[in-house]
Specification:
Elements (H helix, E strand, L loop, with lengths): L1 E7 L2 H23 L2 E5 L3 H13 L7 E5 L1 E3 L9 H12 L5 E2 L9 H16 L7 E5 L23 E4 L8 E4 L1 H5 L3 E6 L5 H9 L10 H4 L5 E7 H4 L7
Parallel strand pairs: 1-10, 2-3, 2-6, 3-5, 6-9, 9-10
Antiparallel strand pairs: 4-8, 7-8
Helix pairs in contact: 1-2, 2-3
Bound molecules: 6-phosphogluconic acid.
Length: 242
């Protein structure tokens, strides 16, 4: 299984390590393919990474294509928008602007917005068909992107992007699907903090129930190429740490 686990002492060191790894992965994609296609995650851990990455990057961002792994169904200036978070952190700090494929969280019909995104992603990826790096987080219920336990979105075998309710019923989401994300050349999971320790143990070392712990679709599949970057608090309950 190609799962590389890296444990940093704290969240600051985790952000530094994540930036270093992203620079290498995206730089290699530019060398090999002339561009890098990166899907972004929402959440608190990526926020810190994006801010630091924008300050330190040496990449040619005009060769970047940024996708979103998921989005809340809100306008792009809403405080819960993943696009807004990326815009205020990563995009605000880099001088060359990448190509950006934004999910239309503001669309009146989320299923149509997901369908539009599905089409746009297929057009973008073309015959090559791969995201180069997919950044993902892990929620305390084992979700990743907006792939929540038990939801129909998990059972999509063809679509690259779907709309889905969130379990708290708060707001609809749009998310890339399991097959789309599994096709990424590299999956890079970020998780920090003691509140992730239990779920990380269950996802990595517990019984295999990906319908209940969707992160297992990626973190328990030996055919995939996965980096899992943690801090000490998040890794506290793992027996295997490398
Ligand atoms: C989101 C993400 C979600 C997130 C995890 C972890 O926009 O909320 O798509 O999957 O990555 O919930 O989030 P934290 O890093 O905030 O714990």
């Amino acid at each position: 299984m190609t799962l590389y686990i890296s444990v940093s002492p704290d969240s600051e060191a985790l952000a530094e390590r994540s930036v270093d790894v992203l620079e290498v992965l995206c730089g290699k994609a530019i060398e090999q393919y002339g561009r890098f296609v990166l899907s972004l995650a929402g959440g608190s851990t990526p926020r810190a990474v994006y801010t630091m990455w924008a300050q330190r990057t040496r990449l040619d961002w005009s060769k970047a294509v940024l996708l979103f792994g998921d989005e809340r169904c809100v306008p792009p200036d809403h405080e819960q928008s993943n696009y807004r978070m990326a815009a205020e952190t990563l995009l605000a700090g880099i001088s060359q602007q990448p190509e950006i494929l934004r999910m239309e969280g503001e669309h009146a019909d989320p299923a149509q917005a997901a369908h539009n995104y599905d089409y746009a992603v297929r057009q973008l990826l073309g015959a090559e068909g791969h995201i180069h790096v997919a950044l993902l987080g892990v929620g305390s219920d084992g979700h990743t992107a907006s792939l929540f336990p038990g939801m129909a979105a998990l059972r999509q075998s063809d679509a690259y992007c779907v709309s889905t309710p969130s379990p708290d019923g708060a707001m609809e989401r749009i998310t890339l699907t399991v097959p789309c994300l599994r096709a990424a050349r590299k999956l890079m999971f970020l998780a920090a903090g003691g509140d992730k320790a239990d779920v990380l143990r269950r996802v990595l070392e517990g019984p295999l129930h990906p319908e209940q712990l969707p992160a297992q679709f990626f973190l328990r599949d030996e055919r995939l190429n996965v980096n899992l970057l943690l801090d000490e608090a998040g890794a506290a309950q793992l027996s295997r740490r490398e």
